[in-house]
């Protein structure tokens, strides 16, 4: 099956929930004094990265409700005094919104493409891969393990394969892809496809 058609016919919601669990398990290990640490995303400290994911969760939730066309829906993330509580709340919000959306609906994702909508199944796959890779970003920043299951890695590779190189750069979730080492593990290949150096450390 064509890779894009496979994504369009896959219900990523169960995988998205698993990815959220992975992400939250890493965020739960973040100490308050770590929020100023750099991350593999050069434009974001750890605080900025966590805030970005809360904003993305809220934006995708708005898109699932048919309210995602305004960029302001993607800009309101707030960690408050408890980043883990904020991450859990936004993850719950987007999970609930995805559950209530039809897979043949269309989601407005203005951060990805201005003025155009995406099939729900594809949009949810974008949120899914964001969570998997941002879990690594957080883990790398604080020096803890990142252990996605084989199913998450395999599905993420399928999504990463269709992410275009154009439009990646400063302030975006993904940088231009980098070469994978010979014999790289699938999860390291995933990171390289999405512009990460698997050897990065803060």
UniProtKB/TrEMBL annotation:
Which InterPro entries did the record assign?
Answer: CHP03086, DinB/YfiT-like, Maleyloyr_isom, MDMPI_metal-binding
Region of interest: Disordered: 166-185
GO molecular-function term, one example from the UniProt record? metal ion binding
Q: Where is the Mycothiol-dependent maleylpyruvate isomerase metal-binding domain?
A: 18-139
Q: Which residues cross the membrane?
A: none
Q: What is this protein called?
A: Uncharacterized protein (TIGR03086 family)
Species assigned in the record: Actinomadura luteofluorescens
């Amino acid at each position: 099956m064509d890779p894009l058609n496979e994504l369009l016919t896959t219900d990523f919601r169960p995988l998205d929930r698993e990815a959220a669990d992975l992400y939250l398990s890493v965020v739960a290990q973040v100490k308050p004094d770590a929020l100023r640490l750099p991350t593999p995303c050069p434009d974001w400290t750890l605080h900025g990265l966590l805030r970005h994911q809360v904003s993305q969760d809220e934006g995708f939730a708005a898109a699932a409700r048919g309210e995602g066309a305004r960029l302001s829906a993607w800009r309101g993330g707030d960690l408050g005094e408890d980043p883990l509580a904020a991450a859990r709340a936004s993850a719950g919000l987007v999970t609930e919104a995805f559950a209530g959306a039809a897979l043949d609906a269309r989601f407005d994702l203005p951060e990805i493409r201005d003025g155009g909508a995406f099939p729900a199944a594809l949009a949810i796959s974008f949120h899914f891969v964001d969570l998997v890779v941002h879990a690594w970003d957080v883990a790398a920043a604080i020096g803890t393990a990142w252990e996605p299951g084989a199913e998450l890695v395999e599905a993420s590779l399928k999504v990463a394969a269709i992410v275009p190189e154009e439009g990646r750069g400063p302030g975006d979730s993904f940088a231009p892809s980098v070469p994978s080492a010979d014999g790289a593990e699938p999860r390291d290949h995933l990171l390289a496809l999405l512009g990460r150096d698997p050897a990065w450390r803060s």
